[in-house]
Design goal:
With 75 residues, the protein is an alpha+beta fold. The protein has a single domain, classed as SH3 type barrels. It is built from two helices and five strands. A hairpin with a 6-residue loop joins strand 2 and strand 3. It is globular and about 25 Å long. The model has no long low-confidence stretch (mean pLDDT 95).
Length: 75
C-alpha cells in the first residue's frame, strides 16, 4: 500500500521508498524503513500530504507519496 492511499490520521510503518532521489532526501531527515509515522494532512484535489514522526512534521507532494510503501498499524 502507498502513503498516498492512506486515510488521514492513520498510523503506518514505512516499508520502502522506491524512488532513489526521494529516498535520499527523506533518509537525510530520518525517514527510513521501519519508522512509524502518522498521516496528519491530506489536502484536497491531490494536494500535499503531511505526516508526523517524533517532534517532526514533513509535507510532500501527492505524487511523491506514491513512492512510499507502508503497512498500516493497529489502532
Amino acid at each position: 500500500m502507498n502513503l498516498s492511499e492512506i486515510p488521514k490520521r492513520t498510523r503506518v510503518k514505512i516499508m520502502e521508498i522506491t524512488q532513489p532521489f526521494l529516498r535520499t532526501k527523506l533518509m537525510e531527515m530520518g525517514v527510513v524503513p521501519g519508522v512509524e509515522i502518522t498521516l496528519t494532512l491530506k489536502a484536497p484535489f491531490r494536494g500535499p500530504i503531511a505526516f508526523a514522526y517524533g517532534n517532526t512534521q514533513i509535507s510532500i507532494r501527492f505524487e511523491d507519496a506514491a513512492f512510499i510503501k507502508v503497512n498500516p498499524l493497529a489502532s
